[in-house]
Amino acid sequence: MIGLALKMLFGDTAKYLMLVAGLFFATFLIVQQASVFCGLMRWTTATLKNVGAPIFVVEERVEQVNETNPMRDTDVARVRSVSAVRWAMPLYSGIQRVRLEDGSFKTVQLIGIDAASLAGAPGRMVEGNLEDLRLPNTVVIDELATVRLSSNPKDPSKKIKIGDQFEINDVEARVVGICKAMRSFTGGPYIWTTYERALQYTPQSRKMLTAVIAAPVEGMSSEQAAAEIEKTTGLRAYVNEGFGSNPRDGGTPKGKKYGDFNTSTVWWYVKNTGIPISFGTTVVIGFIVGVAIACQTFYAFVLDNLKHLGALKAMGMSNFRLSLMLVVQALTVGVIGFGLGLLATSGFAMGAIENGQPPFYMPWQIPVATFLAVQLICMLAALMGIIRLGLYEPAMVFRA
Amino acid sequence: MNFLTKLIRYGSIAAALFGVVAIVMVSRTQAEREMPPPGDPPVMPPQKPYAQAVAATGILEALSENVAIGVPLPGLVTEVFVKVNDLVKKDQPLFKLDDRDLLAEQLSTQAQQEISRAQITVSEAQLAKLESQLARLNAVSDSRAVSLEDLENRKLDVAISQAQLAAAKAQLAASETSLKRIALLIERLTVLAPRDGAIIQLNIRAGEYAATSPKNPAMILGETDRLQVRADIDEQNATRIREGQTAYGYLKGDPTVTFPLEFIRVEPYVIPKVSLTGSSTERVDTRVLQVIYSLNRPTDPPLYVGQQVDVFIEAPDRLKKP
Amino acid sequence: MVDVRAVEKSFGEGSGRLHVLKQVNLQARTGEITMLVGPSGCGKTTLLSAIAGTLRVESGEINVLGNSLEKMSGHALTRFRAKSIGFIFQQFNLIPTLTVAENVGVPLLIQGVSSGKALDRSREILEKVGLGPRWKERPNKLSGGEQQRVAIARALVHEPQLVICDEPTAALDAQNGEVVLELFRQVARSPERAVIIVTHDNRIFSYADRIARMDDGEIVEVKEQLHAQPPHFIHEHAL
Q: How many folded domains does chain A comprise?
């Protein structure tokens, strides 16, 4: 029976290709657009990924990591005084301008970390030594900066190397290390230096402390520690565990906010920018186009075969088995179209990951959800066929 | 069934399978490029010595505070007797200011003294002459030989001469006192150590002009065997501080250097915090309670006065509000 | 043995109601070819559908091979059709994406026979209708007459006791029609099998053992033809 269904499906190459193409486009559109969207949203949390600290303590009204509302220097000591905190260090994060040798300006994301512990230092060094950051006027830059800050970005020999110099707000900075880092949403490369030096690079203002990064004591979860910090200091403590639900979500004392900084940041962008709407629309349109093409083609396929299916029905094939045949056919094109869509997405993804541009991040949920969506499309198409076939009286086969 | 149909049929199945494999590969590559999850920093920050503690930043000072040695008068420094790190006893001379103007005055006063002495001699001689003349007149018994008026005149002359001698003596005494005063003034220009201690900072050198500004002491005298830590506690945590709480210090920059601290006192006046980050402009953010702790100066590694210290003070958590 | 008694059937509602079958009685015996003839619209196809079990009637009894169709459930009826009835349609209704042999094997597949066995059986029967060597081809490569021979093979492959033919020659030219029907008579006629053919093609009336003439929903005449012998062109054209 399944063999009969598949032979009927594959027998008509043109219709088969139409069906597969519809699902292929639907899959590609959904997976690719959703992944680019996820990638873009992840870029907004780049600082959280690049500064690997379990807890971020910020001013109480701060909702997302790229928004800074500086705190007082003594807040580090206050956070440190909370029993649930194992260590707490100051962090500076801000967008600054770099002046290159040729006089042109580029914006960068400047990160200032504690010089002694180097808490918040980049996780993966490519070249150079992180400890050299304690030398005077030194910075560690990310791989993007080696190109972005070079005088001629197209010439690989002009890349910024260890030992090269540039100026941040007219203060000299010498490169002592190159690291891997995630791109920021603003497109600027990441530059690490010590907290004290970051303050020198930055125009003076009354309060300079962007955040306090902290870790919970052993045997305590980050969530518990963050709750403890909020209760004791009145500051806002976020955990840094990645986008997703969090035990504290919804139940935070400050009303409906999120306990995870990634989640909170992403939601901030969802609520305050048009990005999710535009991408969401594309994903939805991809889905609708997929549904339309797939259902329409499949329905046309069923209609074309109606005479034969009717004959089968007259010859004593039960409705159940006919439905099963349609389901098998729909599932088959669904799986193949999905696979082809994934192939195209992989091609796109490889290029995107290699270049770091455009943003691409595909959590496993996307292909799984897309698979389910595509199968849903197919089931819908099959259902339409089944309904149409159910309305077809076997006696009609005699009225040719 | 022709070749093309077969190609499309099996080709599409193979491509679909490959697509699934490829997306798994993409997922792997993506995971490889992921930033490592948050963890501990490269150098572990100081571990809290107590379960419940108040953290503060502090600065190392010499015990019983550092003495900023002042200058009595603005003036040129002629000589500095000590070097940095020298241990000095109480009253040991530290440096000397230019005293030539006083020396000059001393010379002229000495000359004045000689003049006064000569004046006394002259007055004494004069008195002796007048006294002998008066004696001779008194020896004449015949009252007609000596007029009464003459005799009275002689007596007055002697009295005048006696007064002149007394004046000359007073003059001498005055110039002697003046000399003593000048000597004292000269002595003041040599600054002595007010107490035992070590020279921990020296800001003047011979030939420099020393001013009397309180901001720039000529030198700082301190005790370096025992140090003290002045810990700044955020006023929000001030209520958790009690007298006698134990504490641990961690040297900023090297958290492996730790030392126990002994409580000395709580400064009763809460002051605006002066940022310790070394910035030229003071950032007065908040007020801090200062608590003073003492410690023995460890030999290895050496500690220096003025270094920043992270302090953890054992203090119970704020009482939970009902 | 097919026995139709007092069958009534109408379509539509109210004033547009069309009485298609009016008290129809008909018998078709095994071992015979029964033809149902009449002008178009006389209800002969409806009657055929009712006998085939693809259409329910309003009243009367239809007894096919000892089974009372109106008493059978839909499911049982479906299974009965699959097992006991062979179908030949006017438009052949071969599935274009299957090969000739696969098409012939479909009734066996419906009954749950494995595809290998079904294919073997199909090729046997294709030999009988003279298309043995062409079993691998697609139906659209075949001429109309050949396609109808495939359809005949399909109708007989599962040895049904009743074969239903709806205008088997309507889509064929005269010559092909006669060839096909002659062949059909040779392979389909068997003592255990009843054959019912609906047609208005008077050239093939001579192949019937019994002709039932219908008009306006009623059987107007039943005529038996003894020793109906066709002309002898089977040997000249069909094989």
A: 2
